[in-house]
Design brief:
membrane; alpha+beta; cell inner membrane; 547 residues; four-stranded mixed sheet; ATP binding; elongated; nucleotide-binding; 3 domains; transferase; five-stranded antiparallel sheet
Length: 547
Amino acid sequence: MRSLRIYRIIKTFLQHGLDDLLPSKAIPWYVKLARLSLFWLYNKHSDKSDAQRFRLAIEALGPVFIKFGQMLSTRRDLLPQAFAEELALLQDQVPPFSGEQALKQIEKSIGREAFTTHFKNFEREPLASASIAQVHTATLLDDDGNDIEVVLKVLRPGIEKTIIADINVMLMFAGIVAKWLPDGKRLRPKEVVNEYKKTILDELDLNREAANAIQLKRNFTQGRDTDHHLYVPEIYSSYCHKNVLVMERIYGIGVGEVATLQELDCNMKLLAERGVEVFFTQVFRDSFFHADMHPGNVFVNASNPSDPTWIAIDCGIVGTLNKEDKRYLAENFVAFFNRDYRKVAQLHVDSGWVPRDTSVDEFEFAIRTVCEPIFNKPLAEISFGQVLVNLFNTARRFNMEVQPQLVLLQKTLLYIEGLGRQLYPQLDLWQTAKPFLENWVKEQMGVSAVFGKIKDNLPFWNEKLPEVPDLVYDFLHSGKQAHLQQIELLTQIKQHQQVKSRQLTYSILAAGAMITSALSLPAQNWLVTSVTGAIAVLFAIKALSTR
């Protein structure tokens, strides 16, 4: 089975002329001979560019490779611009599997009796079909007898085995790329495939997606003024399982349907700015962000065209940041706004993203060399995501370790920026984000932040305060005991040193007497020999008996 899959992949690569991408000098003679022996597998797309042929090959290889291509499209630090743009065109739409098969899987997970009791109007024709799962519509009867329109997301049967098999083949080809391509080591193909493996295997657990969606929804239902800018559908966790997800059905306009939004006279500028705001809110306020916001997962609620809001689905991939990462990122962004490259370099060293022994002066110069030409353009024309890509590329030259949370952040930022400028090409993402970031940094480092931290810790101190006197007494008592023990230990060490000193003295005297006795032997002075020998024995006994 694996051999057939490998043959199909090789056949697809050759029929799309991808072997032309490998440098001829790097290919061994026996590989060239094997290529000639497969003469019937010729390039059928010679009229297309390298990037187009690469995308078509990915599409031909099916769902797992399509998903991989989508991920690669966001790694602009690894791919040439033309390839990244082509891969961004990949659509996660594949032929659906049988509705009857989906129903059987749902009934097996939820339970046939529970399904027939609580669900009706199940539509066997899927609403949408993607590489890993497809969704069907139905009506859920809640405990109060109300009808709720829902969608049921069902994993493709046997998809886990298919994914693992294809990833193993990908790893094999990644090894070939790393060995033969001149830039193979920099591209780190094996690491990229392993990163994809972790991401896609996480998506196979719909319980994880349900939990992520519930958390994201809770973050945007706290009653704050901006919370209504993002809506996350309700998850009905009582009916969710590893391979089935039940959630509220939403009616929105796909974010890519720009013409439809314009016909409705939607406020595109406000919508684009809110998209940026929602992203930075998730990252810097909540430390929990939707990391797969491609056009298929984002919709617009334009029921009030002057006050449009965002709708997010498919929370299978999320990113998180700790406090240190958030602070360093925010300060990095603000430093970039102000073109303070020295601070950017110092922040990378302080955060541990690059080795501590990195020369800040050299790193600053490298960042300036990359970024100054970019900043010669008007801010509105500068790609925020591309600046981040260039920064990470520069940092890698200084042995920056791959930070998974930053890779997800970079990917999401590219998505958001792309969506924002698709909706409103004049969007000045820098101007939109700068006040938000500056305010966040002030909130984290100002007086209010100090009082906020004190307030957050009050329950802890309220609990521990009555114990403080006892803790102080215990500390002082244990300190006194430790001091007495230390004095005793020092006395013992001093006595031990005195004993060793006496032993050494007696040993030296014994050795001296022994030498004198030995020297007197040739002169046959038996009296001296006997006396000094006896003295040597006495000193030796004294040295051994000293305690």
